[in-house]
């Protein structure tokens, strides 16, 4: 029996998976030639739409070598291996080497897929693997199938694989080295749009205050998205000329951002990078004389091309991430406090150094905080650093070494419902 045919659109998927290395840290300077291997694993529902029991899930694995020498085939280990997760069965004869060389096999006795071979340096010479599983018909709504492959590679160029790293799920770009998850009853949607607002001088929002909006457009999928973002300036505010900017995950300008005066809106157009994000910032001034209690509601719209045909035929409204409601606008109330944010510029968690962040809540009611870690390898966060409850009149302590290992980390502390 021949290998299965890749699902519709997989050519685009495979080509774009190769761009994932653009968001991997540049390889360090090495005294000798050595590989530097990274691997991503994306899940695709073969019939699209909502994931249901009995569906076939196709896994694509991209193994890239960002180093300066070939990753050799070590005969003593498998360069890649992936145990088929519980709640599904391997689809016979589905394992294929889509790009690159080497040999791929399914071992029934160990219920895992293995690959052995070499990985040449350069993203354009990445190895792409494919295999499929069938979800059990007994799975129930909300149950998750979790799966992660392992890559053996050679850190010093001596031909022996001395390091073992897990694959990373490209749908969660802020969480490194996490498993690829498929949840019954959910789609494998990978596009998100979130929007928050900051009062630049802190405290209550007052007339003539400057408010900064920050929009985060996230493409957690494995291919770039052609997109356009439209954001009307809300009533009771005036756009601050020249304040709009758009940057990617590395802080570099991305796409084109303008203010359309005739329509009184901010417009961005460009590509949201694969496994990446676009951060759009702009400022408004609350109009003089705006009465206390006035609500200022604002919501942007993302138009994007979900299937690579060049048409922006999918629409997504921004969501305020600190409420339970999905797709709700970002609302400011004049006279009330806004989201507070603090930036702690310097820190290090490598070379024997430690960085601790201490957050104190001096008030008589609990608050919630989220910590974002800005590193040379991009933005990082963790489930344990998100929406953390700090009780009234108490302090919480965070050791950043538990979350990242880097010589350079700065911390952004966001308080959703008060100040700390």
Describe the structure.
The chain is an all-beta fold. Helix content is 2%, strand content 42%. Strands 1, 2, 4, 5 and 8 form a 5-stranded antiparallel β-sheet that branches. Strands 6-7-3-10-11 form a 5-stranded antiparallel β-sheet, with no helix packed on it. Strand 6 and strand 7 (112-116) form a beta hairpin.
Q: How much is the average pLDDT?
A: 86
Oligomer designation? single chain
Radius of gyration: 23 Å
Estimate percent helicity.
Answer: under 10%
Gap between N and C termini, in Å? 63 Å
Brief rundown of the structure:
With 420 residues, the protein is an all-beta fold.
Index terms:
420 residues; mainly beta; 5-stranded antiparallel sheet; 1 helix
Which helices and strands, and how do they pair?
Elements: H1 10-17, E1 37-45, E2 56-65, E3 80-83, E4 88-90, E5 96-99, E6 103-107, E7 112-116, E8 127-135, E9 144-147, E10 150-153, E11 163-166, E12 180-183, E13 191-199, E14 210-219, E15 225-232, E16 237-239, E17 245-248, E18 256-260, E19 265-272, E20 276-286, E21 295-298, E22 301-304, E23 314-317, E24 330-333, E25 340-344, E26 356-361, E27 367-375, E28 378-380, E29 388-390, E30 394-399, E31 409-415
Antiparallel strand pairs: 1-2, 2-8, 3-7, 3-10, 4-8, 5-8, 6-7, 9-12, 10-11, 13-14, 14-20, 15-19, 15-22, 16-20, 17-20, 18-19, 21-24, 22-23, 25-31, 26-30, 27-28, 27-29, 27-31
């Amino acid at each position: 029996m021949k290998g299965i045919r890749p699902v519709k659109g997989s050519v685009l998927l495979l080509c774009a998976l190769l761009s994932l290395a653009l968001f991997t840290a540049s390889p360090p300077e090495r005294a000798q030639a050595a590989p530097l291997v990274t691997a991503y694993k994306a899940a695709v529902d073969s019939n699209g739409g909502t994931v249901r029991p009995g569906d076939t899930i196709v896994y694509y694995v991209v193994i890239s070598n960002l180093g300066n020498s070939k990753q050799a085939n070590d005969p003593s280990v498998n360069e890649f291996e992936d145990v088929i997760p519980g709640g599904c069965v391997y689809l016979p004869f589905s394992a294929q080497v889509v790009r690159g060389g080497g040999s791929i096999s399914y071992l029934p006795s160990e219920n895992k897929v293995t690959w052995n071979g070499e990985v040449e340096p350069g993203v354009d010479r990445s190895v792409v693997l494919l295999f499929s599983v069938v979800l059990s018909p007994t799975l129930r709504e909300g149950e998750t199938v979790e799966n992660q492959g392992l890559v053996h590679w050679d850190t010093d160029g001596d031909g022996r694989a001395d390091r073992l790293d897990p694959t990373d799920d490209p749908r969660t770009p802020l969480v490194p080295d996490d498993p690829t998850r498929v949840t019954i009853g959910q789609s494998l949607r990978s596009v998100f749009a979130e929007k928050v607002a900051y009062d630049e001088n802190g405290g209550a929002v007052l007339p003539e205050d400057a408010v900064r909006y920050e929009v985060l457009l996230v493409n957690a999928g494995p291919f770039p998205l052609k997109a356009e973002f439209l954001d009307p300036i809300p009533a009771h505010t005036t756009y601050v000329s020249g304040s709009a900017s758009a940057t990617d995950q590395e802080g570099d300008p991305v796409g084109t951002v303008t203010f359309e005066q005739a329509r009184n809106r901010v417009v961005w157009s460009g590509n949201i990078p694969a496994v990446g994000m676009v951060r759009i910032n702009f400022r408004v001034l609350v109009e003089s004389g705006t009465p206390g209690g006035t609500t200022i509601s604002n919501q942007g719209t993302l138009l994007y091309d979900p299937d690579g045909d060049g048409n922006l035929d999918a629409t997504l409204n921004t969501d305020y991430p600190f409420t339970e409601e999905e797709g709700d606008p970002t609302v400011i109330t004049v006279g009330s406090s806004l989201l507070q944010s603090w930036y702690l510029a310097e820190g290090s968690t490598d070379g024997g150094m430690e960085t601790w962040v201490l957050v104190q809540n001096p008030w008589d009611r609990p608050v919630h905080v989220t910590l974002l870690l800005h590193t040379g390898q991009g933005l990082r966060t963790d489930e344990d650093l998100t929406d953390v409850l700090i009780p009234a009149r108490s302090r919480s302590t965070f050791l950043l070494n538990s979350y990242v290992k880097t010589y350079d980390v700065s911390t952004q502390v966001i308080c959703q419902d008060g100040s700390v």
